[in-house]
Amino acid sequence: MASHSILTLFALIFVFKFSFVLATDVSYDGRAITIDSQRRILLSGSIHYPRSTAEMWPDLIKKAKEGGLDAIETYIFWNAHEPVRRQYDFSGNLDFIRFLKTVQNEGLYAVLRIGPYVCAEWNYGGFPVWLHNMPGIELRTANDVFMNEMQNFTSLIVDMAKQENLFASQGGPIIIAQIENEYGNVMSQYGAAGKAYVDWCANMANSLDIGVPWIMCQQPDPPSSVIGTCNGWYCHEWEQTNPNAPKMWTENWTGWFKSWGGSDPYRTAEDVAYAVARFFQTGGSFQNYYMYHGGTNFGRVAGGPYITTTYDYDAPLDEFGNLNQPKYGHLKQLHDMLHLLEEALTYGNVTNMPMDNSASATIFSLNGTSACFLVNENTTADNTITIQGNQFVVPAWSVSILPDCQTEAYNTAKVTTQTSIMVKRSNGAESEPASLVWSWMPEDIHDTVVEQKGQRFASQLIDQKAINDASDYLWYMTSLNLDKNDPIWTKNMSLRVNGTGQIMHAFVNGEYLGSDWAMYGTFQKSFEKNVNLNPGSNKITLLSATVGLQNYGPYFDLVADGLPGPVEIVGRNGDETIIKDLSAHTWSYKIGMNGLEKNFYSSENSPPTWQTQNLPMNRNMTWYKTTFKAPLGNDPVVVDMLGLGKGLAWVNGNSIGRYWPSYLAVNDGSCSTEACDYRGKYSNSKCVSGCGEPTQRWYHVPRSFLKDGANELVLFEEFGGNPSLVNFQTVVVGSVCGSVAENNTLELSCHGRPISAIKYAHFGNSQGNCGSFRKGTCGATTDSLSAIQNSCVGKESCSVIASGNVFGATNCTDVPNKLVVEALC
Ligand SMILES: *[C@@H]1O[C@H](CO)[C@@H](O)[C@H](O)[C@H]1NC(C)=O
Ligand SMILES: *[C@@H]1O[C@H](CO)[C@@H](O)[C@H](O)[C@H]1NC(C)=O
Ligand SMILES: *[C@@H]1O[C@H](CO)[C@@H](O)[C@H](O)[C@H]1NC(C)=O
Ligand SMILES: *[C@@H]1O[C@H](CO)[C@@H](O)[C@H](O)[C@H]1NC(C)=O
Ligand SMILES: *[C@@H]1O[C@H](CO)[C@@H](O)[C@H](O)[C@H]1NC(C)=O
Ligand SMILES: *[C@@H]1O[C@H](CO)[C@@H](O)[C@H](O)[C@H]1NC(C)=O
Ligand SMILES: *[C@@H]1O[C@H](CO)[C@@H](O)[C@H](O)[C@H]1NC(C)=O
Ligand SMILES: *[C@@H]1O[C@H](CO)[C@@H](O)[C@H](O)[C@H]1NC(C)=O
Ligand SMILES: CC(=O)N[C@H]1CO[C@H](CO)[C@@H](O)[C@@H]1O
Ligand SMILES: CC(=O)N[C@H]1CO[C@H](CO)[C@@H](O)[C@@H]1O
After folding, report:
1. Which whole number is the average pLDDT over 30-42?
2. Which of 440, 495, 589, 672 is the most buried (most CB within 10 A)?
3. Which residue has its alpha carbon closest to ligand 10 atom 7?
């Protein structure tokens, strides 16, 4: 008994310690978020837990910490957690508690953006579709039914986090929480109810008593109990409306998302660094990268509609968790610099000195020492800035940071971090056959296109949201009786369907008639195709396939999905047109595909009827299955889907998302062959690539989905395609490039693999980019290649000084010498 009570006492002391002694006080003033009364510079990065796997989290968060971040930000994804009202899922990669504990274990803070509206290119902006179907509900406004549901879910999340002592006030990692999301962008369209709703959000959030500040992003003039924050490519011109709240930036877009039919976004490291440095120069103290790791839209979580399965975002960590160099390293150097200057930036006296030609200097002085930020906003011309008697050349569109106002320690446009070019390689799957062996099965569509067997009936066309997003697929079936004396017989007849821009396939009397789809940003599309009908009964079957539901905009939740109609038979003869509107006919509806319902994608419940003979090519509505061995090693795995049309894919029963390699990125001339210029304001149409190529050819198969021995890949091919080219590859660094000015050190690393060869090395004024370097007008006469080969080949990493002593004198007179190297890994 005695020992038991001593144990209890120890347990009590332990609990006491953790709930009180380690509690962190988080507050704020006009300069910064304060942690235990100290003003802080906080660098945060978004990693959305469902866009990777729980097995990937520790590595991603560790890399974020090594990249110089203080905090990880995530949204909470309501529709993933509560797919059916009051039925919850917090398993696997939805275990946000485990995610936050992983953040805590790495010693980082967390920013919890509960929303629960999250936008995020996520299906329906994170709202469960069942909300839409609740009687009397209106979303994101002062409506009791909605507010009750929002409060119920928000409370649940807060309670779960409290239960695990995850708020800083309890000794946990969460220092900031967010309610609603970018409501200020749409609020005016909700009138007075919108304002009332925002006030209610703030009050409701504060009533949850979490002991750390609540924020609202993109909310001009927010309620005084929450902090308003900025989102955007740049936020240095944004000012806090509340003088007692700090300047905070919740979404610094490191790149952009991608849509089916869209090109590949790219934002330079120079420009992201410029935006960050400008923000801190102008008094910012908290900023978050959206995204730091974008990841993958597994399953059906992509929103849009038409957001791709990859959500790479050109973030500092790529879709698979690899360092996206030089962005990752260049920003890490900036983070180190900002942390070094934390006190000066948050406590120092600030002097702004505007100068000519779009230049300015800001001096942060503290206790007699000072730090300087020099900016040149001119987009074409370098600028010489004189500060405290010294002259500094500041390149166009860049910020120099001088920690002592005497020496330049960092310039946003001078990238010294290597560039890493990632490649896909087919390497060493043990005894993998040259090509995969496939079996197949037709999706049985006889019951819909011929028998028209429905599960529910209506005398109208229904919006696809009526099925609570149970599937991408909804069949619309009706029949049309044509009398043989009907005047329409003399006409040229067609089927006309007014749709929402989602995918539609039409079948008439059991025969495929045609298909139609759109692209990101299209919410209405009309289909019309000639049709042969028979006297008597005709069967019209339409299949609607959603590619994610709308996630953004005022009243985005009301945007129509599926086939709102009208559906018409149009008979034309010269000027005469006869229209038979089928919209009010009796329609029967069927949700989903038979193979989905029968779990064809999961080997456990798979029926034994997969066929191995006569493998069909380019056949719509077809299931394919193969087995494969996992590529050796630990490099990230992708499956190359070139040759396929569009559909859904599973590995060992885990959905890896929608695939659509047949959708080529539009070739609209936006992809320039010229090198991307970091100078000038970025937008998502700048520096894009991939025009005319498959929007997404490779699909991430997380290592944790794979096992030793045979793995199973199952495809549901909706459009028709050729699976024979499908193969598994790993993502590895293919080559690395570095470029440094004379007397600086060039460092190269093949990310843990040996450098195999030097492809290019020159000390002088090289031209071009990584992969296409060439000698310029001048340089060293001696051969730079062999010097680099000796120092680097066979090693995982190497460093060399760009010195004339090593590489020989150059004949460059009016341009500076640079050492430029491309190494193969
Ligand atoms: C949410 O609503 C359910 C009833 O539907 C109720 O039982 C539960 O207590 C509510 N949860 C919270 C946190 O309010
Ligand atoms: C940028 O610099 C050029 C060359 O000095 C000058 O002509 C131009 O006016 C400047 N632009 C701005 C916006 O300062
Ligand atoms: C800021 O400037 C004022 C006035 O010159 C001075 O009194 C104060 O000590 C300075 N504060 C810091 C932190 O250097
Ligand atoms: C600046 O002075 C304040 C007050 O004297 C002191 O608390 C602080 O530690 C000093 N900071 C530095 C960087 O010397
Ligand atoms: C029927 O109409 C369509 C479009 O209205 C036209 O393209 C087609 O040539 C016509 N066919 C006949 C046989 O008139
Ligand atoms: C077609 O559907 C859209 C909704 O997607 C609707 O706004 C439009 O009015 C419809 N067109 C016609 C001709 O009814
Ligand atoms: C590099 O260092 C050498 C030797 O110290 C010096 O002569 C040369 O001027 C330096 N070059 C530059 C560009 O600073
Ligand atoms: C430098 O030397 C190279 C090789 O001798 C020559 O081709 C080049 O024209 C020279 N450049 C200058 C600027 O003198
Ligand atoms: C605050 C801010 O910079 N907002 C901008 C974010 O980016 C969008 C799209 O580029 C702009 O329209 C906003 O003004
Ligand atoms: C969308 C699509 O690819 N549909 C195809 C379905 O199959 C028919 C008949 O083989 C093709 O004509 C369609 O192009």
Report:
1. 98
2. 495
3. 620
